[in-house]
Hints:
Layout: E1 26-34, E2 38-46, E3 54-58, E4 65-67, E5 82-88, H1 89-104, H2 122-132, E6 156-158, E7 165-169, E8 172-173
Antiparallel strand pairs: 1-2, 1-5, 2-3, 3-4, 6-7, 7-8
Amino acid sequence: MADGRSLERGAAAESIGPSRRADPSLCRTNRALARHFAVHTWIVVKERGARRYSRYDYTAWGEPIRVDGFAADGRWFGARPEAVVSVDGERAEQLIPRIRAVVENYKFRDYGDYSPWPGPNSNTFTQAILDGVPELRAVLPPTAIGKDFPYRGEWFGLTPSGTGVFVSLGAISA
Length: 174
């Protein structure tokens, strides 16, 4: 069985953007299955006129907030990415500066802050962006371990979908 270091992280075969019409702006949240039980999520943006996409990840190695450390549509440990949400055009143009502001102000950006469980991890980071820019209207899947980590210090409240409530007791959530 291959370990994570030997698995592919290169670009997936398909393009992440909409059809090659008139250079739209794009913001997209991706997820890829990692090790059959959880997902890793990241954010991709491209401003109108930009020559390339920018990818934002939160990882356990190197600089915790990684910008363009991997291909925008790259595989994650061999898993093909799937879109959680994709926005383009004028709506994306309005949201991209707000996404970047959440990234710039993310609280857990120091070495040693990352924790696979209960968080903060990549899914905590992506959830913070989705919470900071609710117009993205996205909900991470249940397998996004760490999305419920109380990164704002809230130990109870509504779930990100708004359809339930959460209570967190440190590393134990209910």
